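re: that complex we talked abt at group meeting.

here r the seqs, copy pasted straight from the sheet so there may be weird spacing, ignore it
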Amino acid sequence: MSGYLATLEAESIEIIREAIALAQKPVMMYSIGKDSSVMLHLARKAFWPAAPPFPLLHIDTTWKFREMIAFRNRIAAESGMKLLVHTNHQRIAEGVTPFTYDSDRYTTMMKTEALKQALDAGEFDLILGGARRDEEKSRAKERIFSFRSPGHRWDPKLQRPELWNLYNARINPGESIRVFPLSNWTEADIWQYIADQDIEIVKLYFAEPRPVVQRSGQWIMVDDERFPLKPGETPEMRVVRFRTLGCYPLTAAIESTATTIAEIVEETQTARTSERQGRLIDHDQSASMEKKKQEGYF
Amino acid sequence: MRDTLRFITCGSVDDGKSTLIGRLLWESKQVFEDHLSALERDSTRYGTQGDAMDFALLVDGLQAEREQSITIDVAYRFFSTPRRRFVVADTPGHEQYTRNMATGASTSELAVLVVNASKGLQVQTHRHARIVGLLGIRHLIMAINKMDLVGWDESVFQQIVADFQPLVKELGFSSFQPIPVSALKGDNITEHSAAAAWYKGPTLLNCLEEVDVTGSATDLGFRMAVQYVNRPTHDFRGFCGRIASGNVRVGDRVRIVPGGMETKIRSIVAWKASLPAAAAGDSITLCLEDEVDVSRGNIIASASDPAELSDQFEARVLCLSEHPLVAGRSYLMNLHTSQAVATITAIKHQVDVKSGSHLAAKALGMNDLGVVNLSTDRAVPFEPYDKCRRLGSFILVDRLSNQTVGAGMIDFSLRRAANIHWQAVDINKAARARQKMQRPMCLWFTGLSASGKSTIANLLEKRMFAAGRHTYMLDGDNIRHGLNRDLGFSEADRVENIRRVTEVARLLVDAGLLVIVSFISPYRAERELARSRFEPGEFVEVFVDTPLEICEQRDPKGLYAKARRGELINFTGIDSDYEPPLSPEIRLDTVSHSVEACVEEILKAVESGGASKVGGKA
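got the structure back, here u go
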């Protein structure tokens, strides 16, 4: 492994071990994406030969790509860790889908609200997440050990000073700490590491012909029969791939011919747009991520 | 192969730090198109540059920052050139956010100190230079910005450099490069400026790419603080951690500090494999030959050159909280992976950020720097910060609010611990208690002035004395006029006052007495510290819970009236806080109960031994 990747890896393993040593009841968010795949790999390395001593938590909106769910179940079983899956069934019963609400309200109910329900039910005091500082402006401001007041709120103006590699995880009941071991990784680092370590990722990241329709200038994949096509609209097969993965109706594909990790790394290094550009939820307003984060979004 | 440089930008507010970073990202083509179109939208809405792009908005990511055009918290940004990868921490210039600046500085190898050419050196420029030096950053670039505002006048540039030169020497920077720039216009950032033909040095990006930050190799042997003990099965016991210094090989002899046991490295475990050796910076798992006692917070060190161990330190400290750091107060100390209770035993001096001179101080306020003596409740392994950042840096955490209130660097061990040995005596507390036929304890009365503490305590002592108990009362009259006559009523003095009272009470309890302490003792932290000095069940906190209005009505000595007129300062309840106990053993309601009834309640609790039910808590 090249020098800087080895340093990033050692730093992240240190953070994960520190988090687990300081927590009473930790959990790791698992979203099935490439960052989660790297996190899981690092966690397994950190505690080898034991399995990581905490469960994985997936917030399932029921609108994920089908391939993601199959991948999740298989990888979790291989890791020897417990997989917790939570869905906000109340909102589903109320008829909430990505098509009935705008992306902002849909995300609040199916992701943020669902996440808080799962964390409260599990009484987790420390939650490991895969967010990176290079993703978005408000994330660039967040600590590695990030304090959450009761109700899972983040107050960007009251962050604890965080010096050296000394993390303050002391909290009162009802409060929690979110820990981001990948804070100092960039998208390119993630790909280089996946290539270097030969980490298995969902095939959706690689280009192949997929059925898509164009919405607001972006390619959206028609992953199942629930996708409401407009009159006369038929999905067309295009060679596309995904830079990030989320709910399929809210995640735009890019036209690409990258079918290997090496080609993806090459493409990432010459990319002109950020990966979150494919996330429809970030475009709502300039400070939208900061608002979502304050309310408890990851 | 490309390496990574971690650096910070710092300097006074409005000197253009965020604009400089935004410009660097832009010039090194690290701005994605969608971020750029957001920047164009935001520049029109929040920008300070008219219709031109405001590069600061690339880094000032929080809504509050954009609205006020200031930086509140440190932002981490990433960019790279074919030569190097960079992680830059853009830190705030406002004094009130200095703690966020220190956060960014603690993990950096180089600092870019930004100075506004049209304003010259500011107090914050000095403060940031000192913090950067204190944290051990040895490489400094001074970006003298807004040169366009002074017409690229070389004499302005030279004057600022000359004014700053003495500090470079004093703080011991090993490299110092001043560069005249205009972040707004992009001069001398990546390309030499035509406007400043007189400047022959490197551009900012050149300098960042070239500077060699690999310091002289430390001569410390192998050290690893244990983070986590991995014990999945009976036949595997691994010690996880990140190597702080030196190298380790299978078969090396190591010593556990504290403890002193020696053993050998049996194996170095990595992912699905074993390694023959590992070096500083690696995260590994070690298995040892012998079953020695090792836990989190211990250091596994080379046997021939083990880590130091002490419970008394001299350290440099930066106060990060609005609550001052006070001599006599105790905090939780996180030092590498170990945790101890640390008491500031003395503030040796405060450092004047402008001149560097030493000032006498009883407390360190928000953003103050000082040198202190610390005493920990047990011996902890460490190395001086200048030898090893990882094993010499610590944070202080408030035990009640859980806030990180201080950051410190150990200079050296005071080595007093080795010289003080407790005199072992045969006549001990238990023997004295048996002789007096009573269970010694400390009844600690707390409450506002005129709440009724002394009245109740006096009657309580009379009743106990009449019952044949051996008692003693400590109150303001017999302590403040003698032992503590040198103390006033500032927060620092109140803390020291209570510390002395606690120690006297402890000696009297050791002598077998029932000790009644009657002091306002307004701060929870001091009462908790007092409690920690006694054995479980010995300390009984009696909260005389009388509302402020009632105390003020009673006002037998006319003190509240004086305080309201401003003739008395630092008066508890008026201009100084009282922090009520959260879970006292006994709470007295003096409004609906008589003095006699209150005393009965205490006697009942003490005689039944019921007061010991919560005595075990910390």
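couple things i noticed - The CA atoms of residues 535 and 616 of chain B lie 8 Å apart. Residues 417-424, 610-618 of chain B have pLDDT under 50 and may be disordered.
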